[in-house]
Amino acid sequence: MWRCPLGLLLLLLLAGELALGARRGRGRRELAPALHLRGIRDAGGRYCQEQDLCCRGRADECALPYLGVTCYCDLFCNRTVSDCCPDFWDFCLGVPPPFPPVQGCVHRGRVYPVLGTYWDNCNRCTCQEKGQWECDQEPCLVDQDMINAINQGNYGWRAGNHSAFWGMTLDEGIRYRLGTIRPSSSVTSMNEIHTVLGPGEVLPTAFEASEKWPNLIHEPLDQGNCAGSWAFSTAAVASDRVSIHSLGHMTPVLSPQNLLSCDTHNQQGCRGGHLDGAWWFLRRRGVVSDHCYPFSGRERDEAGPAPRCMMHSRAMGRGKRQATAHCPNSRVHTNDIYQVTPAYRLGSSEKEIMKELMENGPVQALMEVHEDFFLYQGGVYSHTPVSHGRPERYRRHGTHSVKITGWGEETLPDGRTLKYWTNSAMRKDTWPMTTPELLSPQLFS
Ligand SMILES: *[C@@H]1O[C@H](CO)[C@@H](O)[C@H](O)[C@H]1NC(C)=O
Ligand SMILES: *[C@@H]1O[C@H](CO)[C@@H](O)[C@H](O)[C@H]1NC(C)=O
């Protein structure tokens, strides 16, 4: 009697069976269950076709793995007991298969097995038992019909597919990609600061802050799926202005996360917030750099508590403040607190906004964002009427805030001049917009 470990014995047995199978070859095939009598499970699968395989007579090597067993693309498979691959009949013989054509859904040239679930952009689709393809009917953020309509309509800007937006619903875009609460009337009626243009003073037709202040204008940060534009745009404008006003002695990228997590009075972090509250916080509490307190993204559990504030400041006299904690990013040791002077509101005079921008740096603007804005890829954006004929749920809007860094103008084919604002530090092509889109720009000095 001999003994060996169980594992080893199993291995030996398996090897033996494999060897047996190889030797007997055809015998195994003859014993194999008929595929289409047992039920073809992948009715629309392309097997012979994918390998470009069709063999005359009997050819046992003319075989392919089929859901854990083997199917064949040779003429011999077409006998009483069939083990043909599902597409053998139509691909190799050019005739309809002999099994009932019910086990799948045909959708855009592909066949999907019954009861499978698939994503079609932002919608979940299921292949129902009787072969109906059923999808949710949510409007998607990236909408090919809208892209085509905008590009064919000559609206002065190009639409396209932003991969970051693919798979999101329009509702999610409005809920997670914007995030500024419309200001109350007490803010919109705040005193306007008027800049006086000298007599005969002429403003340039184009201006870009990054050209006047090289290295002091910061690239926009990506807010991801955090509806916190209130914090991002405020921190962005403040970063540039701190850099400009300190003549480049300080060039911090101020931390939006510091605002999102710590400016919680009447604010909702990644669910939206007020600009006046953000400016109040920057002035009275101050924030650290983005390096020290980096952006952590939207909390996964939306209903759960917002992330804890990791940075507080205390007064150290003369209106200055200092941090009371180390940087949340443990590799950074500089936790200086940056504060700004009070924010003020600009009037809606185009020239005064321009002069302010040219003299003191980027300004913050509120804008109402519509469904087509998410498709913007270049040109001068204006809201298009392409969704007007569609149901209400395709026509959505929300309030957003952005940093304006310059302006320019272009001549339209009909000879008119189109003036626009720009809002990117480096790429003039990114997110420009026309004046009518702006609602009362606000800023601080
Ligand atoms: C293959 O099988 C089908 C259905 O049984 C039959 O109609 C057809 O004639 C067969 N074709 C060949 C080439 O044997
Ligand atoms: C849009 O972009 C995504 C991600 O890059 C891609 O998977 C998708 O097929 C694109 N959609 C269209 C309609 O081009």
Automatic annotation (TrEMBL):
Segments forming a coiled coil: none
Annotated compartments: Secreted
PROSITE patterns: SMB_1, SMB_2, THIOL_PROTEASE_HIS
SUPFAM superfamilies in the cross-refs: Cysteine proteinases
Annotated keywords: Disulfide bond, Glycoprotein, Secreted, Signal
Signal peptide: 1-21
Single GO cellular component term: extracellular region
Record GO biological process: proteolysis
Principal subcellular localisation of the protein: secreted
All residue ranges annotated as the SMB domain in the record: 50-98
Domain of life: Eukaryota
tRNA-binding found in the keyword field: no
GO molecular function, one term: cysteine-type peptidase activity
UniProt-listed PANTHER family: CYSTEINE PROTEASE FAMILY C1-RELATED
Family: Belongs to the peptidase C1 family.
UniProt name for this protein: Tubulointerstitial nephritis antigen like 1
Natural source organism: Equus asinus (Donkey)
Taxonomic placement: Eukaryota, Metazoa, Chordata, Craniata, Vertebrata
Gene: TINAGL1
